[in-house]
Write a structure and sequence with these properties.
The structure is a homodimer. Chain A contains four helices and five strands; from the N terminus they run βααααββββ. By secondary structure, chain A is an alpha+beta fold. The first copy, chain A, has one domain (13-151): Roll (Thiol Ester Dehydrase, Chain A), CATH 3.10.129.10. Chain A has a five-stranded antiparallel beta sheet with strand order 1-3-4-5-2, with helices on one face. The interface between A and B is medium-sized, with 34 and 34 residues.
């Protein structure tokens, strides 16, 4: 079941069910932005320079995995995971299955794995999700399995 | 044992041992940069706006967890984890124990947890590390447990 989300619809803890799926918009990975992100946060040759990247295990220019992760977050926040009160992560597992390349177009598909109401905080709970980031060829470039906060409708 | 690393010293797979520790430089978390990162990758009120953040679970402006992760990567790449041929992550677990706040100064301490030579690729191996990011008060803001590639000295 792929959830059809109306604009502005936001999901509270009691609206979420195991197996529920959400799909994000797309994001184009611009080469200049890949290099700029790398220059600031991950200044390694395979993220910065075509020629230098060819002799590395990447075999060509690749985005930093942290850039892929950050773009996936943007896609979740801008509609890919429409949680009421936002997306607040507690922790996660990340796997980078394939590099993200300049010119790739990414989208994120999310599945709800578990919904755990809090015993101590009646307004809150933890939602376990798996968010897979795909490129334009349907190849997985990142799998994020994370715990995020969920809020009940009556939460202030 | 905290490794004293000479400038330009780079560690190959055979130089790494379980329990070896490395310490990064520091990075100051500027409020403007926190907001700019959030505007691009994690546009949520608690990362963008002081007033709006006060009524959230953060209780004040907080950096995106992905910003903390990206800065930790910069600190690893710029000396905090001096691996020969760079830091190439295969996957990781991340936990955000506390928010990073504007004005925080972060540093990363890394411990080698496991060194696993590859059976199929004689020049390579996998290194499991735990990198804890601390703020200026010695509080952990992020724990990264990751698998990164290691290369043998004879690798071309």
């Amino acid at each position: 079941m792929n959830q059809i989300v109306e604009a502005c619809q936001r999901f509270y803890l009691e609206d979420l069910q195991v197996g529920q799926r959400f799909t994000s918009d797309c994001c184009h990975m611009n080469e200049d932005r890949i290099k700029a992100f790398a220059a600031e946060f991950d200044p390694q040759p395979f993220h910065l320079d075509h020629a230098a990247s060819r002799t590395t295990v990447f075999g060509g220019l690749a985005a930093s995995g942290w850039h892929t992760a950050a773009v996936a977050m943007r896609l979740l926040v801008t509609g890919g995971l429409p949680l009421a009160h936002g997306i607040i992560g507690l922790g996660c597992e990340l796997e980078w299955a394939k590099p993200t390349r300049p010119g790739d177009t990414l989208r994120v598909e999310t599945e709800v794995l578990e919904v755990l109401p809090s015993r101590s905080k009646p307004n809150q709970g933890v939602v376990r999700v798996r968010s897979t980031t795909f490129n334009q060829d349907g190849e997985s470039v990142q799998v994020f399995k994370g715990k995020v906060l969920g809020f009940r409708r009556q939460a202030t």
